[in-house]
Amino acid sequence: MANPRLRALAWWKKFTKEDIVLAAVGLALIILSFSFLFKSSPKNTASTFALSSELVELTLLRSAKDRGAFCLDGSLPGYHFEKGFGSGSSNWVLHIEGGGWCDSIASCLSRKTTALGSSHHMELQVQFSGILSHDSTLNPDFFNWNKVKLRYCDGASFAGNPESEFHNGTNLFFRGQLIWEAFMDELLAMGMSNASRDALLVGLQL
């Protein structure tokens, strides 16, 4: 039986120097292509993500304290706003954050330590994407509208009022109705009262 090593050597000798050079060049090109692909993919992904979303600052309601419009823990409610431009400068998209209800003292007390019950735990910036994106290729209908994300922190779908609060030392504020009224007054003062065409209310189920 022929030695396997000798057979391999005989097979290799069939190739000329030109064949070996061409094979080496081809292998180098393949390696270079894969290297470029892996290096460029994260950058392209990051670039696409940057176009599809943008960070928007949290704004606390200026009039909330005087009106007694507080989150569950007594902190001021907040929203994120991006000003419209061009043909969309008089149109508004209001996005209401979802989060369900807290339906017991225990669950509401627990919620006080989260963004759904306290602005102290809300992100200072959020990404505007989807219907809130400013990218005209991804959001052609609303990209240049005034866009607002209303943060939800009262635990009762903006329906609570001081009369519904518990006075047993739990320090829970159910002021959703007052928060909603304060939101609307502030947005109207910012220009929503001059909406010439449309004001769209969207959001998750509360």
From TrEMBL:
The chain crosses the membrane at residues 20-38. Its EC number is 3.1.1.-. GO terms for biological process: cell wall organization. Its main location: secreted. It comes from the Eukaryota. It is an enzyme of class 3 (hydrolase). GO terms for molecular function: hydrolase activity. This is Pectin acetylesterase. Pfam families: PAE (PF03283). It is found in: Secreted, Cell wall. Keywords: Cell wall, Cell wall biogenesis/degradation, Hydrolase, Membrane, Secreted, Transmembrane, Transmembrane helix. It comes from Opuntia streptacantha. Belongs to the pectinacetylesterase family. Hydrolyzes acetyl esters in homogalacturonan regions of pectin. In type I primary cell wall, galacturonic acid residues of pectin can be acetylated at the O-2 and O-3 positions. Decreasing the degree of acetylation of pectin gels in vitro alters their physical properties.
